[in-house]
Amino acid sequence: MISELEKKEIDQNTHANNLINNLNLLQEYLDGLISKNETYRYNCFKVLFSVSEKKPDIIYPYWDFFINHLDSKNSYHKMSAVLILANLTAVDTEKKFETIFEKFYDNLKSEKTIVPIYVIKSSGKILKFKPNLEGKITDLLINIEKIHQGKQIELLKSAVIESFTEFFPNSKNKLEIINFVQEQIKSSSPKTRKIAKDFLKNFVGK
């Protein structure tokens, strides 16, 4: 156990740079993702997430490790996997993400909120590196109300619009996205209504 990571506040960038320069520590961070010490676990995640953003090629060989976390019953383990796998699409020359697409997006069906919302919020980043998947991902997001089994659907819809904001300019499905967003003007959630109005103002001019 890396004692520094038991502290509430850490400089994750410093730790990430140290890990990049000393890969012998990598396994300890990976093991830390299932630690029962919540602070330690979260700090390990923060450092690994930072590394996966800065140098995803370092983490990419551990792809299967994170795929296994997608099968966990623990929402925080699944969330960690979702966020890091999204970063790894930047270097996914072997098209591994395409093979686990269904497993990844099946998380939208959960009755819980935390994992689906991070799947949605990661979609813009994924499409930056996987534009070939835009049609499939857009279709899932605009049908979130039919897919998600939980009660916080309006919160998820706001996340969908935020995700659309990231890739709308390059989308080949602009009409479908606009129609979805326009429907959210009538949302019961003030937050979702505001995000929908802002989206339409920025991209449609109304």
Question: How would you describe this structure to a colleague?
Answer:
- The structure is a single chain.
- With 206 residues, the protein is an all-alpha fold.
- It starts with 11 loop residues before the first helix and ends with a helix.
Classify the oligomer.
single chain
Distance between the termini: 54 Å
Note the main sheet: none
Question: What's the overall average pLDDT, rounded?
Answer: 94
Shape: globular
Low-confidence stretches: none
- Fraction in helix: 55-70%
Computed structural class: mainly alpha
Strand content: under 5%
What is the string of SSEs from the N terminus onward? HHHHHHHHHHHHHH
Characteristic terms for this protein:
67% helix; mainly alpha; globular; 206 residues; 14 helices
Describe the SSE topology.
Layout lengths: L11 H10 L4 H7 L5 H17 L1 H4 L3 H8 L4 H14 L7 H4 L1 H5 L8 H16 L4 H9 L1 H4 L5 H15 L6 H10 L6 H14 L3
